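ok so I'm stuck.
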Amino acid sequence: MKTISAERLFLGWIATEKGLADNSVASYQFDLNRFAAFLEDRGLTDRTVTANDLDRFLGVLYDVGFAVSSIQRTLSTVRSYFRFCTAENLLDSDPAEHLLVPRKPKTLPSVLSIKEIEAILNAVDISKRGGLRDRALLETLYGTGMRVSELCDFSESHFSDDGFITIRGKGNKERIVPLGDVAKEWIDRYKAEERPSLATSKSADTIFINQRGGSPLSRMGVWKILHAYALKAGISGEVSPHTFRHSYATHLLEGGADLRIVQELLGHSNITTTEIYTHVDRTHLIEVHRYFHPRNRPM
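replied:
not stuck anymore, here's the structure
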């Protein structure tokens, strides 16, 4: 019994029509597999499942102990699947039409201070093999606010002559951001002095490649590089490529950047996604209030 009758059609649609990356399509497929297992356990299919059954599926996800973010993603996939099926007349009705997705509690992103960023950057020994690559990689992460997947795809074709780079983000959307003088200097030095010795036929024009075989760095490879230097710099707590992205946005806003400009630089389609950064550094807000508010100025 095939519990998800139009899975292949749906995955093909989100890949071609919506332009989602392979990793995103794989996530959709993973969520559908989880839903298919639930249906199979209960002798159901996508044609016989009801709204009540979907409520029970939600309860199962809670009972198993999934994080709210995982539940949100799974239910969003299920809703998208049924919307697709009804729009294409593959199903007569949409049982997920009124399915409520739980809200994710707002959590503040972890942010490194400028001194902590500098400590991580300075922890790189550029005299060792791979050192120039690692320094250029970290400078690029912090200098552009790239997502780790965007960094792994970063290639020569993304450069322009005016100091900007083109980044291909989620949904294959493009945005143009300044590279920054420091990041450019390290990339130029890495490309001139070290990358040629790492490159092979597998490297193509990808900027950041591994030391074995010259293949493009993976997301896990970037994470391991950053994690190692954070430990070396004595930074406690979890430090990931996304921490650098959060820090990039926060430091821009602390320096006076407009929120909508930061939205464009990060590639957020919705301003509310960027607004979380306005709540990160409470100390900075207090200092601004004390300095500028007339009731806080020294007499």
